[in-house]
Amino acid sequence: MKLLLVIFFAAICTTASAQWYRVDQLLKKKAVRPPYEDLSGGRFVVRFSAEKIPHPKIHPVLIDRSDYSLEASENVVMQLAQHNMRFRIYNDASYNFSDLARLYVKQNRLSEAKWYLLQSNSISRQENDDKHTIENLIDLANIKAAMGDVLLAQQDLAEAHDLAYAKGLNQYLETIDLATQYLNQNKLPKQKPVLIYADDAQNKTKAE
Length: 208
Fold this sequence. Notes:
This protein has eight helices and no strands. Among the domains are: 65-128, no CATH class; 130-190, no CATH class. The chain has helices spanning 2-27, 67-86, 90-106, 110-126, 130-147, 150-166, 173-185, 193-207. By secondary structure, it is mostly helical. Helix content is 69%, strand content 0%.
């Protein structure tokens, strides 16, 4: 009898707990999901126009090379020229001499620049490098004009013009013509202030 009562009460407790579990689940509120909306049409997308930002103009600033920089470049180019001459790479040495001449022009060492251009021109003629020969003649004319040798500068430009015309290198003709016109308009080199002072002093001495 006792055993039957135990089994009866156990069955009642089990069914009661299961029912309370189901009631508890039913009392919980389920989260309501919003309906799906198709946004592919772009109705809810706000489009912003890209704001244009003005770009500042950057102007290059040219800074003259220092004496140390020029001397360092001179040493490097000189070593290259010596190496190429030693191993008989004459064409490269010719361009090295031209580079040296341009460095000397920047240092106002015109006599040295003239000498190296003459050496470069001699090699370029032997190597039949007409373009380099024409460029050297133009540079020589500029140096000679700066030194006051206007007639010799005109002769170099005339030779460069004839060579460019004969070889069909028409890209040099305009540059040569402009340089020739400039020389014809400025045949007499401007005297330096020191020379003017010396002439005035000499004239005053003669007058006294």
